[in-house]
Amino acid sequence: MISKKRLAAVTSLALALGAASPAVLAAERIVCKSINARLSSLLVPPEECPSPFVLCTQGTVHNGLLRGETFFTASELVLAAGFDSPPFPVASYTGALRIHTRRGSLTTEGVGIFDPLPPPDGDGTFAQFDRLVGGTGRFEGATGTLYFFGVGNEDGSGFESAVRGEVCLRVHLRGEDEDEDGDGDD
Question: Which CATH architecture has domain 37-172?
Answer without folding.
Answer: Beta Barrel (2.40)
